[in-house]
Amino acid sequence: MPISDVFKWKKRASLMYAVGAWTICGSLAYYRYSHKEPLVTATPVEEEDKENVKKYQGTHHKTTVVYKEEFVPYSTRLLNLLKSPATEDSPAASEGQKDET
């Protein structure tokens, strides 16, 4: 096959690939735009037995979330771990506490 035919074949193949790719992208965008489903929103259910139990009900699901009593968030735990013990024992901190009382 002559070199000129190879370049023609390459141009035709790349054009075919580009048209096919843009057709698929356009079809997907059109399908998503035209077949939108309504958004499902979860609404809290009013009947709450305990303070640490939350119930949510959507169109197709019912969710119950139970929170632990006296739970300390991980961010607070990490903050307490990284706090320097020197800041709690410093004289300035002691004086500040004395002034407040």
Automatic annotation (TrEMBL):
Region (Disordered): 82-101
Residues spanning the membrane: 12-31
Matching InterPro entries: SMIM26
Biological source species: Alosa alosa
Protein's UniProt name: Uncharacterized protein
Keywords per UniProt: Membrane, Transmembrane, Transmembrane helix
